Amino acid sequence: MEEFLAHELTIESITQKGLLILIIYAILEMAYLYFFKKYEGMKDYKQTTINFLFVIGMNIVVGALIGVISTASFSLLAFKNALFTTDLTYYWWIYGFLIYELFYWIQHWLAHKVRLIWCLHSPHHAPESMNMLVGFNHSFIEVIFYMPFFLGFMPSLLGVHPVIVLSIAVIDIIWGNLLHINEKVVPSGRYGLLEKILQTPSHHRVHHAQNVMYLDTNYNSMTLFWDWALGTLQPLREDEKVKYGITRNVKSDNFWDVQFGEFVLLAKDMWNASGILNKLNYLFQPPGWSHTRKHTGLVSELKKELKKD
Ligand SMILES: [Zn+2]
Ligand SMILES: [Zn+2]
Question: Closest ligand to 221 CA?
């Protein structure tokens, strides 16, 4: 365990330095877009900046009340109770990477397909443009509880060593945030041949699009493997320009609407539905599901319509 703590300290300091570099980059990108590019998406910064400070505040509050909840603490807890354990031999790194990415895909798929979890995830998709602060624009519940559970607890329950989990998590945070780089900084968002195996800004721009053909695709943040294997891979098409944002009419510069607007709509739908089963269905069915059984907003229905046209 002492050996692990030494690793953890190193990983913790690397994470902190990595995050600091990303934040400095995000601020430089904002200044560059404002002063040199007369950027039309500046209004998105208002909400993302408020949320960024809010998430830091909530981290401090939750940490003070119940201790720090993080990928590291979840991973350590699960590894002590793992179904089986593994070590740091190279093939366990490969196993660990595959498992980590699978759980990344699962948590992100659930975030798009289960309405209650979509309420937590939709703030990340609300901005109508892409920049590095969007990478940080997650609901505090998603950052503090939801993602550490899927990315820390679950892999280690399946035996992935905490050192492996945390090493991959550091790479994931850094690479995943860089996917949000603005078009005026890296116009194509494509990285040559890497485009065939890794998630790049071009793939993630597709994920943030509200164009019907792009909805619910490209869930992973590092490689394309699980999106390819599970049928959710969608490369950017030259003939389909990305329109960012979510399909509801959201005030993308308003912190309250972005962070909590989906919860309000969910509560309204539940209130208006008859019977306990219909009400509960709203929590767990995908966004767009309706108790009237006219699911016109369902992504699967929208895609069917698109095919007909
Ligand atoms: Zn998403
Ligand atoms: Zn994103």
Answer: 2
Q: How far is CA 274 from CA 88, 221, 264, 284, in A?
A: 54, 40, 18, 16
**Shortest-distance ligand to the CA of residue 111:** 1
Expressed in angstroms and rounded, the spacing between residue 5 Cα and the centre of ligand 1 is: 33
Q: Which residue in this structure is represented by tokens 């069915």? A: 285
- 266 CA to centre of ligand 1 in angstroms: 18
pTM here is 0.93
Expressed in angstroms and rounded, the spacing between residue 131 Cα and the centre of ligand 2 is 10
271-302 b/e (C-beta count within 10 Å ≥ 16 → b): eebeeeebeebbeebbbbbbbeeebeebbeeb
The model's pLDDT over 81-127, given as tens digits with 9 standing for 90+, comes to 999 989 999 999 999 999 999 999 999 999 999 999 999 999 999 99
11, 47, 59 from 256: Cα distances, Å? 34, 9, 19
Instruction: Report CA(186)–ligand 2 centroid distance (Å).
Output: 16
